[in-house]
Amino acid sequence: MLKDPYVLEFLGMPEKYQYIESELEEKLISNLQNFLLELGKGFTFEKRQYRISISGKHFYVDLVFYHRILKCFVLIDLKRGEVTHQNVGQMNLYLNYFKKEVSTDGDSEPIGIVLGADKDHVLVEYATESISNQLLISNYQLYLPDKKQLENELNKLLDDE
């Protein structure tokens, strides 16, 4: 169900451009139809910057969707750089909140996606190992690799077999 990586070429951002997370979010919202197509079938947009208030502190989920086939909320947290263990903990907080405060009878447990430009597979494994929530870490890239890079990756895969 989860793609990895997501290819966000439709945003039209220059490859080496130094952007901030809110700029990436703004571009995704401006190109929402294309982003929904990239996510896959069944996603409906709920809200951006969804405010969660816990013990007088406010947190903001970047993008909230509802998946009508899975019958659950899908929370997306955008990260400009590498995904950290703090990002995983933050998403786990969001998922617990949605499970107790937002989901209704008949909803499945929410799914969280931390979408970063890079991820360390070992860090992600340790950070998510005992978490019972459906929390996924995925990459995005602004452009597909060039033909030579694709050939090199294909050759690596074929050599491994």
Keywords:
6 strands, globular, 6-stranded mixed beta sheet, 5 helices, 36% helix, 161 residues, alpha/beta, single chain
- Helix and strand run: EHHEEEHEHEH
Low-confidence stretches are none
Helix percent band:
25-40%
Number of strands: 6
Q: Radius of gyration, Cα only, in angstroms?
A: 17 Å
As laid out across the biggest beta sheet, the strand order is 1-6-5-4-3-2
Kindly report how far apart the N and C termini lie. Answer: 25 Å
Can you give a write-up of this model?
The mean pLDDT is 83. The radius of gyration is 17 Å and the shape is globular. The longest helix is centred in the middle third of the chain and has 18 residues. A hairpin with a 2-residue loop joins strand 2 and strand 3. It is α/β, with parallel strands linked by helices and 161 residues long. Strands 1-6-5-4-3-2 form a 6-stranded mixed β-sheet, sandwiched between helices. The protein contains 5 helices and 6 strands.
Helix-strand blueprint:
Layout lengths: L5 E2 L13 H10 L1 H8 L3 E12 L2 E11 L4 E11 L2 H18 L8 E8 L2 H8 L5 E8 L5 H14 L1
Parallel strand pairs: 1-6, 4-5, 5-6
Antiparallel strand pairs: 2-3, 3-4
